[in-house]
Design a protein that fits this description.
8 strands; globular; about 10% strand; about 325 residues; Rossmann fold; alpha/beta; 3-OHacyl-CoA_DH; transmembrane helix; oxidoreductase; 6PGD_dom2; membrane; 2 domains; 12 helices
Length: about 325
Amino acid sequence: MTGSVAVIGSGMMGSAIAAMSALAGNRTLMVDLNMEKALNGRKNALECIKMRADNGLNTQEEAVLAADNLICCGSLKKEAENIGLVIEAIVEQLPAKQNLFEELDKLLLPTVPICSNTSGLRITDISAKCMYPERTITTHFWLPGHLVPLVELVMGEKTREDIALCVRDELTHWKKVPVLVKRDVPGQLANRIFQAIIRESIDIVASGLAGAEDVDAAISYGMAMRFPEWGPLKHLDAIGLDLGISVQDTVLPDICAVRHSNTYLKNLVDEGKLGVKSKQGFYDWKVRDIEKEIRKRDQFIIETVKLVTRLDKG
């Protein structure tokens, strides 16, 4: 890719995306509604860069260069001819994204990919006002965006495959693991799988089969231990597809298959139990420390990424 990378929106995800772009050696423009927000986003991006360098995911030399690559600006008009890639990470509201994409579509050269970090909206809808929707694509970074390797690339109804492959190659250079989703459907790819796990997890608690802590433990200390290097389809091939059919025929008839949010979950919400924000959800957050849990999560991801990287090189 030639040209600068522009990241529009400098919140939690935007700053992490900008950090990864800068670490990859790109001149990276952080754009927001005002310079104060952009500068605050740059501060957060520098913290992301420091965390990666301090934990060996990037070198200290790469971190120093990345800091120099981060540039704050309030508008792209003066930079338009020098931009090679745009990633939008603004508020998750369709009209706001549509208006921004329409503006970018008019401003940038028709060959410049325009990407959205949307977690749920369709890129086809986001790009509805664009003259060149074929160069638009979803690039959904997973939280925390500077640590989790996955990026879901979702092609819209008019996205050109060569554009998608070009973006995939660029993000691979960012030390990301991009996966290509060829249809613009709700939940993209990974979130469809994740929602199936969540649905069954809630149903197990609601039915009294096990408590929330045991459900999370079963996932964290069981299947999740294999997932970084042993996905479910690789697992099926390993055990034999005939055995996989036998297990499915036994288990699937008895698992949750509702096509709406669980009544148990709705009852918790009606009782004002909203999770961390209300200090009560599946867990009692009056006696648990969410910041401590986040630190543990991030450190686990860091160590896992380092291990998987070593295994891949070996």
